[in-house]
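Summary of Year 1 activities. Much of the first year was spent building the evaluation harness for sequence design. The harness presents a backbone, in tokenized form, and records the residue chosen at every position. We chose the following record to illustrate the format because it has been used consistently in internal testing since the harness was completed.
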């Protein structure tokens, strides 16, 4: 008698929500940030889909979510015990954790007095600016009509992180701690092609003339 073995194959469907696919980080130090300012990211004035800001730090518990230029303008979902809250990275808090601006702190902590607490945090795929994406912006206060110098960045890219950018094939470099790439040399006209590269291998290409010119910075509190 020959016995038959039946192989049972189980397929698992993984459904990813609008949040990042990585698990949330727990027990991250959070503090209250009381300033009213544009922040280190110098995000452009725009119609934002959320108004709860955070200054992001670089302590070890933040792991892959530590502050970098590429984190500027990204949305994080935090939970400090009063339900999940989406916050936008607008500033750096080097040496610290999640420095929640007053509006974000009050909602996330249930109006706790200024101090410290622990929160979970996860990268969200939510876009912060109305109108879809990706969207290229000139850096506010930059020289937008200087054919020998351009400074642009990209926002509304979901959970992707920008890793580099070229203008007419020439690589740019991040400007300080801001999310904008600086390009020098030229002359570079409005028909110059900007190509942004992302950590998932994808790219977004546009022309300089399509990058939004907004001189004012968004103020956060």
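For this record, the design step produced the sequence shown next.
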């Amino acid at each position: 008698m020959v016995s038959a073995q039946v192989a049972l194959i189980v397929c698992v469907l993984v459904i990813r929500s609008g949040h990042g696919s990585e698990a949330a980080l727990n027990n991250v130090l959070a503090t209250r940030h009381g300033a009213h300012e544009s922040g280190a990211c110098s995000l452009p004035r725009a119609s934002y889909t959320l108004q709860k800001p955070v200054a992001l730090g670089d302590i070890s518990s933040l792991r892959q979510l530590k502050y970098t230029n590429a984190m500027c303008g990204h949305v994080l979902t935090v939970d400090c015990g009063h339900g999940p809250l989406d916050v936008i990275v607008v500033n750096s808090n080097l040496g610290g954790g999640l420095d929640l601006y007053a509006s974000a702190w009050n909602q996330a902590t249930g109006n706790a007095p200024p101090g410290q607490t622990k929160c979970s945090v996860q990268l969200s795929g939510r876009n912060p600016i109305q109108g879809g994406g990706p969207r290229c912006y000139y850096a506010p206060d930059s020289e937008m009509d200087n054919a020998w110098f351009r400074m642009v960045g990209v926002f509304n890219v979901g959970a992707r992180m920008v890793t580099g950018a070229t203008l007419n094939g020439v690589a740019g470099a991040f400007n300080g701690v801001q999310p904008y790439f600086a390009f020098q040399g030229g002359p570079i006209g409005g028909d110059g092609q900007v190509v942004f590269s992302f950590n998932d291998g994808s790219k977004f290409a546009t022309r300089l003339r399509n990058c939004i010119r907004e001189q004012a910075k968004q103020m956060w509190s």
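Residues 102-109 form the longest helix (8 residues). Quantitative recovery figures across the full test set are reported in Table 2.
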